Amino acid sequence: MKKNLSIVILLISLAISQSVFSQTYSFEKGKVPEGWKIDKGVLHISSEKYKSGSRSLQIKWKQNAVLTLPSPTGISEACRNRNGGMNAWIYNESPTKENLLFSFRDETGKEVCQLPFLLDFKGWRCIWAKFQGDMNMSSKSNIQSVEIQFPQHTKKGVTYIDLLEFTSKVSWQNMSDAQYKVNRTDYSLIPDFIGYRNATPKVEKVITAEDNQITTITNRLTTWYLGSGQHSSERWIKMRTENEKTFIRNGVKAAQKIKIQYTEDHTPQGEPLFPMGAPTIIDGQEAKKFRSINENILLPLALDYRKNQNDQSLKKALYIYDWFNDQGWADGSSMGTLCFEKLRSSGYFHSFFLLKEQLSPEQLKRELQTMNWFTMFGACYQLPSHAGEVADNLRALAIPKLIYALSQNDKQEREVALTAFKHYMDNALGIAPGFFGTFKADFSGYHHRGPYHSAYYPHALYAGALIAYLLHDTPYALSETTLHNLKQGLLTFRFFCAGLEVPAGTVGRFPKGQQILETLLPAFAYTALSFKEPDKELTAAFKRILESTENQQAITEYISNVNSNLAYTSTVGEIELVTQLASSSIAKEKPVTGTLFMPYSGLLVAKDSLFHFNIKGFSRYIWDFESSATENTKGRYLGYGQIEYFDFKNRHKSFNPQETDFDWNYIPGATTKVLPDKVLQDKGGSSSGHRNFSDETFLTGVHASDKNAMFSFRMHDITYDQSFRANKSVFVFEDFLLCLGSDIQTKDKRYPTVTTLFQSFSRNTSEERMPEGYILTDPSLMYAVKGGAVRTSSEGSHTRAYIEHGTAPEAAKYHYYILKNKKKVLARQLLSNESPIKVIAQDNDAHIVTYKTKEITCGALFNAQKKYEGQLVSQVNIPLSYILEKQKDNSFKLSVCEPDMRRISRAHMGLLTEEDVIQQEKPYDTQLTINGLYNVECPQKTIKVSLDKEKDKTYITISTIRGENYTLLLHQADH
Length: 975
Prior knowledge:
Layout: E1 5-11, E2 14-21, E3 24-25, E4 37-38, E5 41-46, E6 56-62, E7 66-70, H1 75-80, E8 85-92, E9 99-105, E10 111-118, E11 123-130, E12 145-149, E13 156-167, H2 193-197, H3 211-226, H4 235-255, E14 281-282, E15 285-286, H5 290-308, H6 311-327, H7 346-355, H8 361-374, H9 391-406, H10 411-428, E16 446-447, E17 450-451, H11 457-471, H12 480-496, H13 521-528, H14 536-547, H15 552-560, H16 572-582, E18 594-598, E19 603-607, E20 611-616, E21 643-647, E22 652-653, E23 671-673, H17 677-680, E24 699-703, E25 709-716, E26 725-732, E27 736-745, E28 753-760, E29 766-770, E30 773-777, E31 782-786, E32 789-795, E33 798-806, E34 812-819, H18 824-831, E35 837-842, E36 846-851, E37 856-861, E38 873-876, E39 880-886, E40 892-897, H19 914-917, E41 924-931, E42 934-937, E43 944-948, E44 953-960, E45 965-972
Antiparallel strand pairs: 1-2, 3-13, 4-7, 5-6, 6-13, 7-12, 8-11, 8-13, 9-10, 9-12, 14-15, 16-17, 18-19, 19-20, 20-21, 21-22, 23-28, 24-25, 25-26, 26-27, 27-34, 28-33, 29-30, 30-31, 31-34, 32-33, 35-36, 36-37, 37-39, 38-41, 39-40, 40-45, 41-44, 42-45, 43-44
Cofactor: Ca(2+)
Subunit structure: Monomer.
Pfam family, one: Lyase_catalyt
């Protein structure tokens, strides 16, 4: 018997330990295990078929045969555990429509559970099944023996078993397939593959197409892969072509290790292949994975054949398809789980399109069925009642779904498939409700139920844009609404990027993966070219990014990188389309400036030509951070009010996780507890360990104008320390930001609480104390702190500056300014009694400030029960924030944000059900009471207004939803 094995499998793309092969039968000792007997057949240790090592158990069975396994190793512990069960690999030589039945029996011989396993296949298949969860065994039952009962009507057959294990922990990711069924009802994390496989290929109204229109789509896709051959001397096309040659050369070289071998009956022979869920090492040898061949070999072989007419590469690729199929890469085969396998199979999908014309009819039929299974194409026939799609399914499977539809030989079947695919993509790229991905109403992008802009979303944007281009100007073109969503998604993405970098608070578990915008340049080109005329706004934005001197290195690196791992995009055709749009006569846009609040990201963006600021929070609807066992392990505070800046002129930034000494306790702008690394990395009270929500709905922002904005949220940690709270607001004005905090509290007496001003890795910092407070500088900005206890600590060039609130603060506050221009005269003025800023409220009811000289008032109203007499906005019926700007003739512009989404939430993402995730946001009749009589209009929607002359009040009712911003124009009414 082999040594104990451990299976490590990704948990939602995170490396988390999975099933443990503690007691595995692998038959390497060459003996049938003691006591194993078959009544009608022969047991033999064979080297003909094996999934590991060089041997397996061969069973030559006859009709109604029973193989008995008395007291198999590990079964006692396995049946006592709720997740206990059986893992196994089974090879079948001759398909039959009957079951192999695993019957599990107690000490009396009574059956306590069973697992039917259909033998209608040839090749290897895998079982991951739980006794209690999948076979409905009572938790009080014991298993003493196992009977494997062979078909009742089939006269004889040959079956092999390898890596048979009775384990106390079968993976939670197991799934039903064509051979056996598991009890899964929630498909939010593991898709319903078998349900999609069984979907009827039917649509309400088939969109028909002429052959030349199908050819148009096919030719566009072919040219995207292979290039047109035009402009081959253009620098970027040449660069991509040369790097593609290296990719092909390396793949062809790696393929030399694969020997084409078939038996007399044309069954492929080759070493065992395993899915991603298998151990890395089996019996001291590295397990070869399908993934490694998918990523490194298959596509280079296909490109080598198509570009260089290398017949040897074609023969090798066709053999690999046969070999894959025999090893379990087949229609209906789950190989345990396809949770992540489907995402790492781009080499297979794309090579199929390039080589399908060379497949035999039998191979083509087989691989099309496999494509249908792996791409979950059946989802196209089962559109949900809501819009949206998981980003993984878009980035990894959108193009493969199109390949499947285009590859149908029957014209009518192809039209049905393409119609279904078009409807699927229009729905997938629609605005999704609740926590569901991918496109949100504010054009945030969601994955793992939260904003994810460093990965997933940009890849989904890319895939959607490419589909739009391939289908445009054909009967299957995506809708105008979908094109609008793609366009706004790209324009919004370029807005919240500073240069090429996404906000630090939306990086998920990739804090060092902020630079991403250059990878979306092709998506700009695809979408722009999908309109009747190249879209001017997209083209102008594209050209500014493309032509920026600062971006050239990143763009060159992108063009130079050719791979086929997660989603294959690095084609010559991609760069040809980028070059095509680059040659447009449309001028590049001016530098992007302005402000934007993104309620689905919990993010305010404020940018001008010199600085870019991102301000981030978390709430009942926005989780705090994502991590894994090895990634972003100290990122707990990224959403605790972080004020991130980019200084374009001096090339400085505030978030620098690449620095060895970066201290994750001191995230600029955040109010945190300073913890030892061990505690900071602790997963806390949440079983999820990350993606934690708050119980506070107040996370709000107002983008009143290009220069005036505000952000405010009520911070509450319900995971690590439920006594830890703070009210935090940032008010953005042209020359400075005002940061207010109040009611900072925690009962934790062990660790100090701080609000960080800055963390710098340059010696260019300073500090000056004065009676009114402190004035400090980092390399880019000046900080004027009113009162409070400011501390700085320096080690070499590393400086941390923060406001200290002490241990167990009860109602601590802070009040400071961030000055863009470092004018000490202004800093002193802001701290003095002659300050242009007046703080009207800074407590648990509200944060209200007035910029007296600009006649701007900003309010974050936490308490809807309180009357704010003396303010124009004197009362509201629900917590909200506003910015009031005085206009000419005693009129006002009132910008409002009411943040509550009014949908269900949980303590962390792992507790959200499928129903929770898609719950729609609900509108609310928000009422504002205005001191004085005003006529009121709203450009966005119809509102109700009533005037009470006796009380000198104006009452406004507006339906608010999704944390959106609304503008109310107030004109003084005649008395």
